[in-house]
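Quick board copy: two proteins, each given as sequence then tokens.
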Amino acid sequence: MQMISVVIIENDNMSRIGATAILSKNQKFQVWGAKYGKEGLDIIASQKPDVVVLNIELPDICGLEAISAIKRTHSSARIVVMTAKSDRDSIKAAIANGADCYYCKNSPKEEVGERFLEAIFAAYNHESWIDPTINRILVDSFRSKETQEKQMNLLSEFSDKELTTLRLVAAGMRNDEVANVMYVSEGTVRSYLHNSFIKLGVNNKLNAIREAIRLGILTFADLKIEQEPTYRRSKKTRSSKDDQQNQNRQAQKSQDKSYPSYNGWAA
């Protein structure tokens, strides 16, 4: 049987030696290792391997650019990315540059060897393969994208007036105060709120605010209520109470003066 030639370009000694050891146990593989990207590209040029295992985080060259270069100069080589990076952007960038398989070094220890071999054989057989460890990340990221699209679609259903009304209500304003700010009638404000309730699937202001925050239509910053007006109203109220108490005391004094003081029973 024809041996599968593999070049491993990995700057981390433990990962490179470990990957080489996994393949060396199998009689089907012929393996070369390189610590640096340029060294690895030289080996690829001379040996023309079937599969290249590449870390996209190399100290001397950009791993993503190395993938593109390998595909340009040795198009028949299949590329397996071996990295600890498991975010969606890294995966997308690697595949966009020509990677065929994506192996995550953070795989469970008991499954490292098995998964690594799966990636190598998949690449050799011209199949795509992504480590199951990061499948959940991809699924969650796509779901997150779908959620964002739903939010954008829902947001587009709201008029500017309806959004303004929601924000003012979330800030603690009553319907009459919202009407004064927006220069509309209270009936119009109620109409804006009614439309928003229908679109959010709720039936009152509190749930509307909660749902709008959950969907990203409102933020917690929208709930901020200015303290200055409240302080002024409180101060004014206190002043009014003080004035009333002073007036009551003055009235009592006037009443006391209109009656003679009591000196006891006359004999």
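And the next:
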Amino acid sequence: MHVEQPLFTVATVTYNSGKWVRQAIESVLASSYSSFEYIIADDCSSDDTWKIVNNYKDSRIVAMRHDKNIGEYANRNAVVKSAKGRYLLFVDGDDVLLKHTLRNLAEYIEAFPNAQTIWGVQPANIDFAIMPYVFESHELIRLIYGTTLPLAVIGFAETVFRVEELRAAGGLSQKYSIGDTYIKKKLALTCNALFVPMGFVFWRRSSNQASSRVNQDYRNFLEGYLIDCEIMQSYDADEKQDLELSIRGSFIRRLLKNTLLKGKYSDFIQLYKKAGLRLRDISLLFKRYTYHYSPVERTDEPLVNSFNFSDKL
């Protein structure tokens, strides 16, 4: 018997998530859009997470548990490999899926069936387009690097992936601890993105989160720069050189501010070396590469499509 492919796979990855995982599961099961696959992947928790997961018998749930702890991104990749849905949304073990998120996303996908990724963005930041709006890959890179908008640093909770595109990209890299930023920038090289108002998930902030731990040292700072350098290696456009100099100069200025100006001389030297910078790159401190991109000439004439209107424009 033919089983129709679900539009969505919702995935909850857990590790010692017993305190909040019940809320995460209950919120997914309460979604107003009810036809989806729900994978819960536990990374060998030592608390009562797995016991809580096993209390749920909903037919949409596919529960899997690793025999040993394999790490966050290996766990996410196990989900990517197993997902049967066309699109994938992560709702982690301490998150809450908002009730109408999947319904709204399904409506967006019906209107924009060629969307390869969906990015939730802050509406107040997007004054050049009436959302939802699709941006092609060359526009995405220019928006990421030619503006100050925090587009690619908003993580899994506000990102929907088309599964085939995520698999084609090799899944989620374990090279970086900020792998959500990396995969969004990597996909932006080849994929379009549908910008929609953010607010898919309530994502909880706590001191033991991976993202919080990363922010406690220089890792996030350094990795962000190394990711940008890697992305630029694969980018081929007229503004590439300007973007590379801007990225390098911005990193050096931030490095100076966060180390030397605070008396952390050894930190400056170590990070400078780890970033692969040369002595002559110091001269970038005194130069301003001001490449700026805007997809419109006037903000009172934003990009628009027919989605929000009764008649086609």
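Board note added afterward: The beta strands are 8-14, 37-42, 61-65, 87-90, 95-97, 117-121, 133-135, 159-162, 193-197, 201-203.
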